[in-house]
Amino acid sequence: MKKTNKTIILGITLALMSAFFYAFNFIYEKMFLTKVSGESILFLMYFGAFAGLYTIHLFSKNLNKSNKNKITKKEVPKVLIMILCELFASLLIIEALKIVNAGLVSLLLVFEIVMTSIIAYLIFKEPIKNNDLISIFLIIIGFIILNFNPNSIKEISVSSLLVIGACLFWGVENNITGLISSKEPSLFTSVKCLAVSILYLIISFFHGTLDLSYPILMFYGFMSYGLGMILYALSTKYLGANRATLVFSFNPIFGVFLALVIFKEQITITFLISLIFMISAIICLNKSST
Predict the structure, then answer these.
(1) Which domain holds residue 236?
(2) Rounded Cα gap, residues 47 and 217, in angstroms
(3) Residue 166 in contact with residue 95, Cβ under 8 Å?
(4) Of all helices (H) and strands (E), which one includes residue 182?
(5) pLDDT one-digit tens code per residue, 77-114
(6) DSSP letter (8 states) at residue 72
(7) Which of 183, 200, 263, 278 could make a disulfide contact with 43, Cβ separation 3.0–4.6 Å?
């Protein structure tokens, strides 16, 4: 598709909408943690994302009998790794949300950019540009400032490690996704969501924490993860995968502001300074692709 100004603007709009919807993911999780177990929340949200995405796939014009969208035997190990990465990452995020507020967790998710770049360099031998290094440096400085809080240094340190661990798993998943990105997004993502939801169902069942009292979480799961993914897939058609991903990287910043508005979370000086560093890092990263 020829990229005119109108198509580029449309692509950026879709990518920003995708980032916005996805940012609600952690808001919903934090909102229901006092009412239901983390495993039940994740089961309902991932199952809702699966149901919505698979329904879209069934009614999609892309539905055909071609084999190009089918997962091959060679790709099965990659898909299994992605499912496990999604499982462990979301578990770590839930544990972090039990400790600190959603705004802090959202801000620390900028580390997903760092982890994705480092893994791409170490494992897939992709070069790191100068602006990428500057972005990583800015994120690390922001992280240090964010953790320099004498009032709750222990809690924030633990939560930071949990979120960084989640970003590590997502970094692996992002790189593997790039290897099989030709698959039809609604079908491929729905299969992944179904597998993760089944694992959470098993975990919550054996822990005795299964609670299906809030089926609305299935709708929230589709709205945040499912709809976010569809909008992202559409944006790649107008921007290309690389630029769409970079615009989508603003989702942690959306998460921060949503948390501040919805939960009325307090803004500290260290949080504000760290936010400036994180935003600067994302802008710098986006400039490296132009």
Answers:
(1) 5-287
(2) 9
(3) no
(4) none
(5) 888 898 999 999 999 999 999 888 888 888 888 888 78
(6) P
(7) 200
